[in-house]
Amino acid sequence: MKIAQIKAKIISNKRLKRNYWHLEFESSIIANNAQPGQFVNIKVSDGLGPLLRRPISIHGVKGSTVKLIYEVLGKGTQALSARKPKEFLDIIGPLGNGFGYKQLAKAGKAKNILIAGGMGVAPLVFLAEKIKPVKPLVLIGAKTKNQILCTPEFKSLGCTLKLATDDGSAGFKGRVTDLLKIVLEQAKPSRLFSCGPHPMLKTIARIAHENKINAQLSLEEHMACGIGACLGCVVSTKAGYKRVCKDGPVFSSEELIW
Ligand SMILES: Cc1cc2nc3c(=O)[nH]c(=O)nc-3n(C[C@H](O)[C@H](O)[C@H](O)COP(=O)(O)OP(=O)(O)OC[C@H]3O[C@@H](n4cnc5c(N)ncnc54)[C@H](O)[C@@H]3O)c2cc1C
Ligand code: FES
User: How far is the C-alpha of 3 from the C-alpha of 33, rounded, in Å?
Assistant: First the structure.
């Protein structure tokens, strides 16, 4: 797998809504090599700080353009949102191991569920694009309606969508994991793919285990180097500690120790 450190030209960097942003940059090397679930590590500012790069999932590629979506949370993402088109960003990528989906695409079964919590939609749109022929069911959970992102993208890929919000402002009222349990009572899929907050992934791992379903989970640990050198992102697995940035971020639910 080719990993590059590049100065990538920003094509666009726009607010989607609230504190959610969409950024596109130019890089044929990253676009040609990216797989769903992989991420890029961005030096968000040309100045001294923030010192550490910020990891952001690859949301999609088109030609030599790479797409990201991000939520402005702290000073790193704040600095990223201030970057303008035609400026250059120092980016390393594509990094990590993404979702395993190739056999699935060949099998052509409509029996796969993608489950996104909040910003977890970012890599799952890219995955839905790659497995378009299998038309997965997509469950998206968020606190409230206007925190739900990417529904047009999933619909345009032919996915069936079900929403869950904590306040009931869209779709099922409650957690997306409770919606998943209801869906599983009706039909058992062959695979689950998920990205989102840690507690959500932990619950999905338990549900997958109880239902004997394979689940691939993309973890969002805090990172420092992003390339496997500092051990700042390790998680416990049945095979010992593993680095989320290098061995993940996607892991099989059965290998993780929560
Ligand atoms: C593999 C990977 C892929 C990611 N993909 C995306 C993405 O596509 N879009 C997106 O918006 N965000 C993504 N994130 C999370 C993103 O990296 C953090 O939100 C970002 O680094 C926060 O930087 P900040 O300086 O703005 O906030 P900080 O000031 O560093 O932190 C602000 C808040 O965000 C929390 N936070 C910081 N880093 C992380 C992290 N790595 N995971 C979870 N919470 C964190 C902090 O605990 C704090 O509460 C991803 C993280 C990883 C590890
Ligand atoms: S962030 Fe340094 S090893 Fe993962």
Answer: 8
Sheet strands side by side (includes 88-95):
54-57, 39-43, 88-95, 4-17, 20-26, 65-71, 60-62
Q: What is the pTM of this model?
A: 0.95
Q: Which ligand is nearest to the CA of 222?
A: 1
Please give the residue range of the domain that contains residue 114.
102-255
The two three-digit tokens of residue 251, written as one number: 């892991």
User: Separation of 230 CA from ligand 2 center, angstroms?
Assistant: 5
One domain for residues 229 and 125? yes
Specify the CATH number for the domain of residue 246.
3.40.50.80
Q: Which of 95, 123, 151 is the last residue of a domain?
A: 95
Please tell me the distance between residue 49's alpha carbon and the centre of ligand 2 in angstroms. 19
Q: Are residues 72 and 126 in the same domain?
A: no
222 Cα to the center of ligand 2, angstroms:
9
- Rounded to 5 degrees, φ, ψ at 126 are -60, -40
Task: State whether 124 and 233 are in the same domain.
Answer: yes
CB under 6 Å to ligand 2: residues?
Answer: 223-226, 228-233, 243, 245
Do 122 and 198 belong together in one domain?
Answer: yes
> Over its length of 258 residues, how does the chain's per-residue pLDDT go in tens digits?
788 999 999 999 999 999 999 999 999 999 999 999 999 999 999 888 788 999 999 999 999 999 999 999 999 999 999 999 999 999 999 999 999 988 776 665 558 999 999 999 999 999 999 999 888 999 999 999 999 999 999 999 999 999 999 999 999 999 999 999 999 998 888 899 999 999 999 999 999 999 999 999 999 889 999 999 999 999 999 999 999 999 999 999 999 999
| CA–CA dist 248, 46 (Å, integer) | 28
Which of 95, 112, 134 is where one domain is finished? 95
